[in-house]
Amino acid sequence: MDYTPLILSLKLAGVVTFGLLIIGAPLAYLLVFLPMRGKVFIESLLGLPLVLPPTVFGFFLLILMGPEGVVGRLHQVATGRPLIFTFGSIALAAMLHGIPYVVQPLKSTYAKLDPRLLESAAVLGCSRTSSFFRVVLPNSLPGIAGAAILTFAHTMGEFGVILMIGGSIPGETKVASIAIYEMVEGMRYSEAWQLSLALLVLSYVILLGFNFLERRQRYGT
How do the domains of the chain map onto residue ranges? Predict the structure, then answer.
């Protein structure tokens, strides 16, 4: 049994989770604490992946990242290689599709912070950036960990978006979900069963960790 697709899924989930935490943590902070006009439009745009079918979302990304798309052309000029059907393309697509799985939980976590902490930081002369790193992040670690686990689990199960952008290239874009689909199509049920079982156990462990963190954050136990 070849577990390369599962390993590739783990690699993808790790890269996407790390990247989204770097982007999503400050983005959620700005949406919660920074007064701005049109915030509802930005939040609705970021939440689109939750309601759009993955294949539709993937199609729009394919247009942007393809050889004739804006992003695809810029990448081609910069690197001399096409963007789609590469690990980089599925990582970027999975990040864009996974944004709400980081931003939404972190917004809820930040909103629960004691406002007196930020007020005290402002009185002491801390800038918004300094308050984010010295006050918000240290007091949001359980929420950040929960968002990371949720994003990791979601990315492990990505299918439609990755299939549209990356296809099924062994060792490059053929993640576990796509491999299982192809095994079933080829009536290789024994292999599909083994890989599915491995993915099931792994997913359960990930969600178990998320629920333990959520319980600890809620009840302090």
Answer: 4-219
Q: Which of 95, 89, 194 is nearest to 154 (CA)?
A: 95
Express each pLDDT in 85-120 by its tens digit.
999 999 999 999 999 999 999 999 999 888 888 888
Residues 4-219: name the CATH superfamily. Answer: MetI-like (1.10.3720.10)
pTM: 0.90
Crossing angle (nearest 10°) for helices 176-185 and 189-219: 150
Q: What are the start-end ranges of the H helices in 112-167?
A: 115-123, 128-131, 141-156, 160-166
Euclidean distance between CA atoms 99 and 215, whole angstroms: 24
Measured distance CA(91)–CA(73) in Å, rounded:
18
- Phi first, then psi: give them for residue 84, nearest 5 degrees: -70, 160
